[in-house]
């Protein structure tokens, strides 16, 4: 099979990582186009990664109309999303999209409907699902060896002003939506469907920063359908220059202490004597998510994280924000044609489907 003709839409910092990974797989992917509203950014990518062989665009509609593509990587900040997924789907172009896939649940589910109705393959950039330690635990859960999962805690600590758009809730959605959604997605992946969420969020450390409207401290509790509880705590006021995101999980038959998605110690607690298993890996999970998408396209199979999963994780992040704003528990109640509507005080406040 020929390499997939691939475009990158949004030529910012994170797109560089994907471009570098794609170049390591020349038999699978061929970078043929770059698109960015800043033509200089797209031209810079074309020069750096293809020696100017790739086409350059500043408008995604023109991109899809004028060049034949198999795959597009959408690497846009959340506020910049419009109808890129819908346009790609209409042209039969498979999609990799960075998280969060949108700022609102309504927009996210428009994307889902477009992708699923046109039958394209999609992958959301929740790369931690591909970490070696996460894969091992997921296998134990699916085999029944872990037993019911009772508790998962996760933290996301950093201290950085980030880009101007990130500091504005109207553009990023806040730290929980833009960053901590990685932890939210892992909880869903390992614990199942959420049924309730309660969140406290404040801006304590950046009140003197103009247009800093996102939270810099938060604590969130998630209830899951099977009875498990997830606890998330995050801050943008920790150690400057240091990024910490780790997690712990307790199931009936084991406890896991993760350093990160690749490295963890599993303690098996269901025997007469405690046993431990240490997972140590430096696997490139950013590359693995792209390889998984390629496999799905070639084999007409499913990806690990289709766009529907991106919408479901966004639903939970948005519900947490709604909880913080209303200072109340938000309940997620499935019903016909709206699989996971968000409820507050008996009143539906966000819907999808």
- How many strands? 17
Overall average residue pLDDT: 95
What proportion of the residues is helical, as a percent range?
A: 25-40%
Strand % is 25-35%
Largest sheet entry? 11 strands, mixed
Low-confidence stretches: 335-340, 343-353
- What's the level 1 CATH class of the largest domain? Alpha Beta
Euclidean distance between termini CA atoms: 36 Å
The secondary structure category is alpha/beta
What's the CATH architecture of the largest domain?
2-Layer Sandwich
3D shape: globular
Q: Assign the CATH superfamily of the largest domain.
A: Dihydrodipicolinate Reductase, domain 2
User: How many domain units?
Assistant: 2
Descriptive report:
The chain has 353 residues and is of the alpha/beta class. The protein has two domains: 4-127 and 286-305, Rossmann fold, CATH 3.40.50; 132-282 and 314-347, 2-Layer Sandwich (Dihydrodipicolinate Reductase, domain 2), CATH 3.30.360.10. The protein is built from eleven helices and 17 strands. The protein has helices spanning 13-23, 39-50, 60-66, 84-90, 105-118, 132-143, 169-172, 175-178, 181-191, 285-299, 307-326; strands spanning 4-9, 29-35, 55-57, 71-74, 94-97, 122-124, 149-157, 194-202, 217-224, 229-235, 244-251, 254-258, 264-268, 275-279, 330-335, 338-344, 347-350. An eleven-stranded mixed beta sheet has the order 14-13-12-11-7-10-9-8-15-16-17, with helices on one face. Strand 15 (330-335) and strand 16 (338-344) form a beta hairpin. The two termini are 36 Å apart.
